[in-house]
Amino acid sequence: MKIGLDIMGGDFAPEANVSGAILANKELPQDTSIVLFGDQDVVREKLVELGGNPDDFEIVHAPDVITMHDHPTRAIPQKPNSTISKGFDLLASGEIQAFASTGNTGAMLVGAIYKVNAVPGIIRPCITSTIPNIKGGNSLILDVGANADCKPDVLYQFAILGSMYAKEVYGIENPKVGLLNIGEEETKGNLLTQSAFKLMQDTTDFNFTGNIEGRDIFTGKVDVIVCDGFTGNVVLKQAEGLFGLMQKRGLRDEYFDRFNYENYGGTPILGVNSNVIIGHGISNDIAVKNMLLHSYDVTKSKLTDKIKEAIN
Amino acid sequence: MKIGLDIMGGDFAPEANVSGAILANKELPQDTSIVLFGDQDVVREKLVELGGNPDDFEIVHAPDVITMHDHPTRAIPQKPNSTISKGFDLLASGEIQAFASTGNTGAMLVGAIYKVNAVPGIIRPCITSTIPNIKGGNSLILDVGANADCKPDVLYQFAILGSMYAKEVYGIENPKVGLLNIGEEETKGNLLTQSAFKLMQDTTDFNFTGNIEGRDIFTGKVDVIVCDGFTGNVVLKQAEGLFGLMQKRGLRDEYFDRFNYENYGGTPILGVNSNVIIGHGISNDIAVKNMLLHSYDVTKSKLTDKIKEAIN
């Protein structure tokens, strides 16, 4: 397996990425290699500087960079020699099996949708986030920002995608799916969740357990929390904000330490024809390492192939 | 001033309400009295049992109760002798100047809208919540559940209502208003927030400072956070859930202690023709006391009259 990494993504590029790749390379199986996308001189120089062996990595020369200020939909055609554009070229041609970046999320989404394409039948690919729950496990929430406006049938597909991710990558059998809502009763909600509830209530496509409220996001009441990308993004950033305040104020314990983004590193874009993993822009080397290990787990699980089978 | 209190609201009725009324009565000015709505025998008995003096209170006999299981829109006409129905009767006739309850929020909303009516020009009355911010003050978020689906002009009015509440009751001059969104740039958001941003960006009706993200809810970046009632309800319950987990795990400090709902007690329904204050169903006596003191502050501020002037 070959996993591509954009060395220019995130706030601490290229060091955090190169360093993370060196760390991940020590933990990945022998038959898996990391392909670094960046200016080849910079990559080699940084590898040596940070104690890595250039012979352990493949390097794809990509001297240009899509920054956070580039327009997501225009960036890829405008910068064909950027790390992200080159990454998607090799992902689309099958030369690499996964591509990971902590860079411009919008450009990653556009690349995923226009260069490797949505799985036929998937209306809207989406992004998940992993939420540590108080029971000791993880719950998934999706969508967390790729689709600000959703229709009920899109939420229905998110439930399928989230269930498959929970099962195939996190090993959760028959994952419980909850619809994020403003009351537990089926009549509660906005027009979107009321309609989505009706679509979901008698389904056999996934294990729907009903509505959940904001207070249940962290309790592990369900394994997969389904919502539109606007709500999910607000939830995620609110949790990050509160966790950040707790850290600043020295309030920590075993449970809340699990909120540290470093532990998760990255999350796949679900519903596209290959393994695209995006990481947080503030990622350090540990987060990048974990993003690469998660890329391995996602690819190894053949989640993408299983989604294709399930949808068609 | 006369403030009405439903003694049958909430999980700990009637004790928590009667006890809260006794506590509030000691702190309210001489010219203000509390009117208790409930079965008169129960009210008198509980007053004596809990150490209050029945002569300090007016009692309105209301032997029936709207429970949490009653349908909000049908409960008031179906139960004319309930505490909530009687409360709204006296509020509508001007015999009391405020009415407070920790009972069925839906019934309170329906009573507010159909018995005292929305202020002419207000499209949708709404509910706020007070969020302690890290700067030491409070931020308001609205709507938190009265209106799950909103149009952009409704969010615009929420900004006016929230600004006036922040100024008149919390004494915040020229309160900063932020639109809760999934990015700070004006192009970010769902269809609702993108349109609302356009309506707000050049306004002189309130001090609009732009979009804020989930991570800024607690930072005091703005004084008034505007969102639809679905998003606001999820935000509020998520914060309550996380605060509850922190409490259970013994993680506390001066800032997070301010999240205790007891401190706030209640919140007015904004945009109706009188002072209607709703409290949390889990309210204890301290929370009820603070709900009554807040009812006094809201009524004293003449917020309702000022909203009428501003809207017309």
From TrEMBL, chains A, B:
This is Phosphate acyltransferase. The keyword Acyltransferase applies. Its main location: cytoplasm. GO terms for molecular function: phosphate:acyl-[acyl carrier protein] acyltransferase activity. Keywords: Acyltransferase, Cytoplasm, Lipid biosynthesis, Lipid metabolism, Phospholipid biosynthesis, Phospholipid metabolism, Transferase. Homodimer. Probably interacts with PlsY. GO terms for biological process: fatty acid biosynthetic process; phospholipid biosynthetic process.
